[in-house]
Amino acid sequence: MLSFLLLFFSLLSSHQPAAVSARCTTVTTTKTFQKCMTLPSQQASIAWTFHPHNATLEIVFFGTFISPSGWVGWGINPISAEMTGTRALIAFPDPNSGQLVLLPYILDPSVKLQKNSLLSSPLDIHLLTSSATLYGGRLATIHDGAAIQIHATLKLVPNKTKIHNVWNRGLYVQGYSPTIHPTTINDLSSVTTVDLLSGTESSKHNNIYTLKLVHGIINAISWGILLPIGAVISRYLRHIQSLGPAWFYAHAGVQLSAFFLGTIGFSIGLRLGDLSPGTVYGLHRKLGFTAFCLASLQTLALLFRPKTTNKYRKYWKSYHHFVGYACVVLGVVNVFQGFEVMGEGRSYAKKAKEDKLRREGVLGGSVKEIGSSNS
Question: Are residues 114 and 194 located together in one domain of the fold?
Fold first, then answer.
């Protein structure tokens, strides 16, 4: 239990918005932009200059590879803040030459459902210029952690100052078809709406992040801490005669508190599902529903608790123990599953590596250009 508490609080202290752990820059080796913003995931950022008089946007996306054979993409969704419908520019090593290439893609619903491969096609937006530049410091190759800049100049709809940015990265490219990206919370929340004039992010996405954080904290406390403590109280304190019925009231109080908080966390999870259409954490969702149903049955069982002299008391106890332990196990497992989808399970080694690359000039500020692709 102590090790779990230490892990829980260390994860909470490390899970801060990307703006805390990375800073944006308006300066590249070829251009200086007017504004910049740190994006909420993947240590990514953007910088831009917007010309209202002719609705022209000059923008650069700063991202990193997660595999030598992987891809990095950025794009704009002209309709809504989601992956489907995004007009994207995706950079990856050419399978024939190994040089960096940048190709346009339209992410239609069939791609999201993985029914069809993602094939390059001309964009139906006013893309004036585009290019990609890879920077590597002393490590001038495409590798895990290599920093890339994707530049684009677009003609926007007049009087339109808000754009939906979508970005991501993946491990492999089959031919010229990027494969599906990882599905941690950081990878599934890589979308934001930006006001080009004010340089601010849409409050909706900030609210979603806050809800996710509250959802994680409440459920970790209820399912990961209080529920096991309640089980321990019942398992070990009931045999201490001097406590009398105090153990039962302590057990019931802790479990009811866990169920109350768990209900709040569960409700927030349902709300997050409504706010994130198309984003489904299959295993996490199924475990959550199962654990909540079992906890509800446990709570209702208190209303039908037979007296100690009742002949059905032994069957009730067997049911209560089985459902209770199953609820504890599923709850704790789902807490760690929640950490996994949040990407925290493997974040420490990667963060250390990214810090090292940043000190070398690989991340967040480029010093050596090794290749580019223009369209």
Answer: yes
Phi-psi region of 190 (alpha: psi -120 to 50; beta: other; left: phi over 0): beta
154 assigned to some structural domain: yes
**CATH number of 248's domain:** 1.20.120.1770
Packing angle, helices 282-301 and 246-275, rounded to 10: 140
CA atoms of 202 and 194, how far apart (whole Å):
6
Backbone angles phi, psi at 324, to 5 degrees: -65, -50
pLDDT over 70 for what percent of the chain? 77
Give SS3 for 328.
helix
CA distance 375 to 373: 7
Distances in Å between the alpha carbon of 8 and those of 13, 61, 80, 259?
9, 33, 35, 19
Domain count, the chain: 2
Residue 174, helix vs strand vs coil: strand
Output the pLDDT for position 136. Answer: 59
User: Two tokens at 269?
Assistant: 């999870």
E strands, the chain, in order = 35-38, 45-51, 56-64, 71-77, 87-93, 100-106, 126-135, 147-155, 162-170, 173-174, 177-178, 191-195, 200-201, 369-374
CA 283 from centre of chain? 15
Contact 171, 70 (CB under 8 A): yes
Tokens of 257: 């508190």
Q: How far is it, in rounded angstroms, from Cα 202 to Cα 165? A: 11
* Residue 150 structural domain: 23-201
Residue 226 pLDDT grade (very low, low, confident, very high; cuts 50, 70, 90): very high
> Using only C-alpha atoms, what is the Rg of the chain?
25
Same domain, 211 and 130: no
Which residue type occupies 194? V
CA separation for the pair 311, 306 (Å, rounded)? 9
**Element spanning 355, H or E:** helix 347-359
Short-list 268, 286, 186, CA closest to 219 = 268
- Tell me: do 276 and 334 sit in the same domain: yes
Does position 2 have pLDDT exceeding 80, yes or no? no
One domain, residues 193 and 221: no
Higher pLDDT, 19 or 291: 291
77 falls within a domain: yes
